[in-house]
Amino acid sequence: MLKLLDMSKKYGQTTHKYPFEPYILADNFRGKPSYNFDWCIGCAACGIACPSNAITIQFNDNQSKLIWEFDCGRCIFCGRCDEVCPTDAIKLSNEFELAVNFDKSALIQRGELETQYCTKCNKAFSTKRLVNYSYECLSRANIGEKRLHEAKSYLSICQTCKENATVSNLTSSEEMVIE
Amino acid sequence: MKKYEVPQEIKDGNTLEEKLELLKQIGRSFSVFRVDCGSCNGCEIEIFAAISPMWDPERFGFKLVANPRHADILLCTGPVTRQMYYPLLRAYEATPDPKIVVALGACGATGGIFYDAYNVLSGIDKIIPVDAYIPGCPPHPASIIYGLTTALGVMDQKLQKVSFEEEGELPSLVKDSVLGNILFERDLLVKAKKLMSYVFGRKLFDKYIEALLKSGDIKNTQATKKSITEAMTIEEDPRYAECMGILHNEVYAQYVTCDEEDLISLHRVEWSKKQ
Amino acid sequence: MKCDKFVEALSQRVKVLEVTRQYQDQVTALVELKDLPEAVRFLYYDIGGYLSTMIANDERQMNKHYALYYALSIEGGKMFEGDEIEQDEKCFITVKVLISPDTLTFPSVSTLVPAAVWYEREAYDMFGLKAEGLPDKRRLVLSDDWPEDLFPLRKDAMDYRHHPDMVNHNKEPEYKFHKPEGSGIIEVPLGPLHITSDEPGHFRLFCDGDKIIDADYRLFYQHRGMEKLAENRMNYDQMGYLAERVCGICGYAHSIACIESAEKAVNLEVPARAQAIRIICLEIERLHSHLLNIGLACEVTGNYTAFMHIFKIREYSMKLAELVTGGRKTYGNVVMGGLRRDMTGNEIKKSLEILETIETQIIEVWDAVMSDKRQVKRWTGIGILDKQVARDFSAVGPNARGSGIKRDTRYDHPYDFFKKLEFEVAVAHGCDVLSRETVRYMELKSSISLIRQCFQLMPQTEIFIEPELTVKPESYALAYDEAPRGENVHWIMQGSAQKIYRWRCRAATYNNWPSLRFQFKGNNIADAALIVCSLDPCFSCTDRVTVVDINSKKSKILTNKDLKNFSRTEKNSPLKDLRC
């Protein structure tokens, strides 16, 4: 028993001074995800990767905007969204002071991105930013003028129309040159 | 599914004015009763750690009690499972009015990762009215202390709802490639992430590109070899140093033709002297 | 190859219809339904094995039957020196049977092997498969107000989100406890709103005066329906996160075992660096878990000062976890094919410093606790787990090791990097609480030495590889690791479209619970909390206790303070005015 009291004297007071002084966490602590709206392209990789569906991505009622929504209450702080984002728009910060009083909607973060409509059938299928981003990447990848020009048009066609166009190209018995 | 209806007398005893009055009264000494509604117990252990002397909430007057009839605050964790639905309601009705209910953790706030399983009623606020939410999986003890002090009014709530509705002027997201072909950067980033995982792979990528640019002429294999080797020797951390060498040998050599002597030798003796 | 010798011996005894191999040390033998009890008994007692897990599976879509898999770890009986199988012959043998959907019955194994009793009760709850001859037929897992004919894990029973109606909370259904015969027996219920295990649990202790004669319990208050959730909503990358939230202390061991079983089913070899860091994270988890348990064992017997000191040391181990993985409890770095977070030289240096601090302080605190004669006396002779009982019920972890049985997954079936590390299994022979706590202390020291060895031998390879593989539907495998509480075994059968077909997660304490009633017998009520704590469930604080004397029908409410005070001081028994 006395040995324990000796130990208390040896180590003294060990209480952290939080909340009267800020608390420093280790580097790369997994805190709240921070969303940079300007870099988000609406690719929905984070929504598919999230294990608890804290990130939901869907069109609004009249399909004019794609709504990206994050609910901090459901987040499990795993970092999968950070890992799969192609533009580093969502990154885990080290914020841990996340409590809210009475009103649960303070935990929500949203972003609205403009929709890209299909040039053939006018269905809403993607966002303008994603199409622009894809085009920019392709233009720096050494793929040749003609292919780049074709890319400009096929990037803005929805999936069903693309499938139909491919099928009709392949079955039209026309000779084509692929560069 | 039939839901629990809060009895009228409990509703009358728990209006917002009564709760704010309670908060003023209990200011420096409040009793907390812990209710575990089927959590994995990670949150419970963090509550235990928050009571330990390193964090010491007794400075604020926090006291853990064993009986809901003595409690002011109910601290609930866990997505409510079917079996714990009944004890939760018994505890809720036993606590004297007015009372404050705090939902701790992702599971308590919204059901967390289990929000739609068949045995789970998905969040405490679907059963009883909740006054404060503390997200986290599990929340850090500092978060728990912050949450309790916010509920008492000692500290201010930091989080607010954020909604971006208009797209403004966008920055260009794609940078020009240093080699003229963006596929080089893509392969480099993929390999860096495979070597050192996404957290450090990004830093490795930046260090490598910086060292590459220092060489002056990227397509000159001797110059790049010299500048990368130099960067490796001055690098403090041996893991980064070695991975830069691997990146050079495997990815750079695919885009710019190298002879055998242009590759970097990764034999430990060369750069481990700095350790 | 491994296992062939034992399968040969089995086929001499019963007719073996088919033998398939899942991995280099795992083999499945299909036998006929009537031979099932004899096959399991032969492997368990005659050859020398322990029951690791039993999986029930709805295979009607594949071969129009239900299937049962009894997985046995063949390692020797270990009851005395020399009763052990050679190190390179230890393996897992699974006995498989097919059950027709018309009869839904199978002969019960628990008449010959008592360890199987909980598994067979669960098979009935989840699938509706009845075991003939099973001594205990009550519901195990689902709640008492669940509809009678709804079996959740059948593929066609219900959607994973279906919620049957609840009843009014004042009319909660009662559970039938098994009561011993005799008059003058006092029944002590410990209700669910306290936590004595990984789950809040409801215990009934039957006492004669102060001594406990028998006990019964109702657990599974934390059943959340994870196995069905994993089949429907999760793909392989997300399974690791779900598995981590099974338990609040040994969560990481679960996520490793889950992902490894998926990797073993496709024979994927993980890079060496990832293996080493997995071991490091598992040992860090063992550090904080054992410190928690030793601290609680001190607190329950009244030694508050030691409890606070131990928790202070534990905070260092949490800091270590935060440094290495980014989170205090949920490490979240496992992915199929390796790990998703590496360690740089900077982190290795800081970790070694923290390990130094932890080691010196642990030795100091244990020295101080052991030199307190009263503390040691409170722990001696309590909660004896007889060696034969541990053998019959397949006890695992420090529970078994405290009774002299040398069972440790890291030693019997080395996994990951363990083939290259040296370590000693900690065993004590006292069978009581003191030996279990001593085993935990020895394991703390060996964990620190293992982490240091891993840092020294850290290989310089990639941290994960792309699993460029074809997932083969219907292939299955077992994976095992040593959680702080014992052997964790997971079993996965792969399905199509990136989803699993069946996941069976068997936590370590599941095997330890059935033997708890034997540990209670002959002890005082005062020590009930201590015995449950030494079993190492999550907590052992008893909250609301109602004591009812059946004969005089008087009752009294005891609070946590009363019971804990009694446990600490052993004076002023709260029951004395009830016995008149």
Evaluate the radius of gyration of chain A: 25 Å
Uncertain residue segments of chain A: none
Radius of gyration over C-alpha positions of chain C, nearest whole angstrom: 24 Å
Q: Could you give the count of β-strands of chain C?
A: 17
Report the count of strand segments of chain A. 7
What is the oligomer described by this structure?
heterotrimer
The percentage helix of chain A is: 25-40%
Largest interface: B-C, 58 and 72 residues
Number of helices of chain A: 6
Strand order of the largest sheet of chain C: 1-2-5-4-3
As a percent range, the share of helical residues of chain C equals 25-40%
Class based on secondary structure composition and strand pairing of chain C: alpha+beta
If helices are DSSP runs of H or I spanning 4 or more residues, what is the number of helices of chain C? 18
Q: In percent, how much strand structure appears in the residues of chain A? A: 15-25%
Low-confidence stretches of chain C: 195-199, 538-567
**Major pleated sheet of chain C:** 5 strands, mixed
Largest sheet of chain A: 4 strands, antiparallel
Distance between the termini of chain C: 69 Å
Describe the structure.
The complex is a heterotrimer of chains A (179), B (275) and C (580). Chain A is an alpha+beta fold and 179 residues long. Helix content of chain A is 30%, strand content 19%. Chain A is built from 6 helices and 7 strands, in the order αβαββαββββααα. Chain A has helices at residues 2-11, 45-49, 80-84, 128-139, 145-154, 159-170, and strands at 33-35, 55-59, 65-71, 90-92, 100-101, 108-117, 124-127. In chain A, the strands form 2 sheets. In chain A, strands 2-3-6-7 form a 4-stranded antiparallel β-sheet. Chain A has a two-stranded antiparallel ribbon with strand order 1-4. In chain A, a hairpin with a 5-residue loop joins strand 2 and strand 3. Chain A is elongated, with a radius of gyration of 25 Å. The N and C termini of chain A lie far apart (84 Å). The mean pLDDT of chain A is 86. With 275 residues, chain B is α/β, with parallel strands linked by helices. Chain B has 10 helices and 6 strands. A 5-stranded parallel β-sheet of chain B has the order 2-1-3-4-5, with helices on both faces. In chain B, helix 3 (42-51) crosses helix 6 (141-152). By secondary structure, chain C is α+β, with helices and mostly antiparallel strands. In chain C, the strands form 5 sheets. Chain C has a 5-stranded mixed β-sheet with strand order 1-2-5-4-3. Chain C is globular. The N and C termini of chain C lie far apart (69 Å). The chains are: A alpha+beta (179), B alpha/beta (275), C alpha+beta (580). At the B-C interface, helix 3, helix 4, helix 7 and helix 9 of B face helix 5 and helix 9 of C. Strand 6 of chain A pairs parallel with strand 6 (162-164) of chain B.
